[in-house]
Design goal:
Layout (H helix, E strand, L loop, with lengths): L43 H16 L12 H16 L13 H17 L12 E9 L4 E9 L4 E11 L2 E9 L1
Antiparallel strand pairs: 1-2, 2-3, 3-4
Pfam families: DUF6459
Length: about 180
Amino acid sequence: MTAVTETPKPVRTRAVPQPRRRTEPTAQEPRRSLRKVQLGGSDPSMTRAAELLSQIDEHREPEPQPALPDPTALVCRVARAAIEVLRGERPANQLARWTSTQVYDQLVARERLLSGTRAGRARPAAPRVGVRRVRLVRLGATSAEATVVLHDGERVRAAAVRLEGRRGTWKVTCLELG
């Protein structure tokens, strides 16, 4: 009978600094004793602890959110840039930081669709897209809706934009272009 031996794989270790530990409690700090608690659904002390924790969370005030800036300038930039994407003058990836993933994906799909129809055609120099009018309504602290009237040289277009505050900045969550 033969025995097969395997060599153990080397153990990877890394040095992690350990925090300093005090061995004796100070005069201001009384020694606390730890109580052993069984984990399980039937232990009454655990349900009481869960109730106390939920009460603490209920009474905790939410952290104040930073005030969002006025979104009017952002609405104008996004609407103008979206029209430029449709005209083939701007790549859609430049709008990624201002739009939600759903709006961005729709712009990319539209860009791909239109780029296939324009292949091989020379584009004449088009006039710059201009914003004629903006109407913005704040629906709350973290949401707003706007309508934008744009002129792109060929025709006048309208855009409807919905913005929501996310992580301290505005994101376009809905964009309708006409």
